Write a sequence for this structure.
């Protein structure tokens, strides 16, 4: 089974393109979403032990507060990563086992390169869009200010660094064109070379 990594900066359109991939019946694992779900459930106690009960005061994780804690504190960020990453890796192993008869699965993560996960992928797809387009998309999608979006972007690698490591780059300024690129990639490249 081939593991196809799918990555791209905030607002590049990973989740949007993943819907197209899922329609082709290729199993997709959304690492960031799995991590978020684990933080609300199985990992809650570990987070409380590490960072305090106040983070779940409303019953749900206060993600903004957690981001504040880890944003400027590398030790806290490492602690959080040490809680989340191994748990997501276990979930991914289960996911692979469930899909072991499939020729390929897609693993989506915004921080595929930054986390080093890309090293365990057989093929890496990078989704790109212009910086301005991404800022406008996220401002609209999440109701965030331009400054807040730019701050989040500053925690991710620049696309120029990612392009060097990617096997295929999808330009997603226009959705129809992006889907044509996906079609080409999966039909002509990935399926033809799946073994
Ligand atoms: P994040 O890393 O923040 O989860 P993402 O890479 O998964 O972001 P999406 O959520 O897929 O990005 O897309 C961000 C927003 O941009 C969404 O509202 C989506 O509908 C929109 N969008 C995605 N691709 C396009 C496109 N080609 N044209 C216009 N809007 C798009």
């Amino acid at each position: 089974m081939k593991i196809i990594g799918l990555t791209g900066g905030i607002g590049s359109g990973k989740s949007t393109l993943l819907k197209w991939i899922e329609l082709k019946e290729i199993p997709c694992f959304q690492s960031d979403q799995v991590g978020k779900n684990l933080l609300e459930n199985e990992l809650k106690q570990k987070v409380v032990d590490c960072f305090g009960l106040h983070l779940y005061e409303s019953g749900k994780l206060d993600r903004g507060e957690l981001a504040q804690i880890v944003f400027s504190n590398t030790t806290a960020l490492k602690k959080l990563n040490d809680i989340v990453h191994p748990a997501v890796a276990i979930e991914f192993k289960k996911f692979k086992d469930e899909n072991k008869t499939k020729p390929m699965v897609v693993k989506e993560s915004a921080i595929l390169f930054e986390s080093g996960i890309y090293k365990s992928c057989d093929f890496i797809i990078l989704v790109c869009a212009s910086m301005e387009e991404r800022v406008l998309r996220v401002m609209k999608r999440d109701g965030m200010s331009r400054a807040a979006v730019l701050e989040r972007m500053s925690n991710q690698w620049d696309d120029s660094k990612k392009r060097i490591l990617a096997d295929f780059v999808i330009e997603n300024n226009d959705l129809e064109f992006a889907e044509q690129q996906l079609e080409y990639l999966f039909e002509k490249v990935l399926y033809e070379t799946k073994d």
In short: The first helix runs from residue 14 to 23. The longest strand covers residues 2-8. The CA atoms of residues 113 and 187 lie 25 Å apart. Residues 8, 10-16, 110, 137, 141, 172, 174-175, 178 surround adenosine-5'-triphosphate (CB under 6 Å).
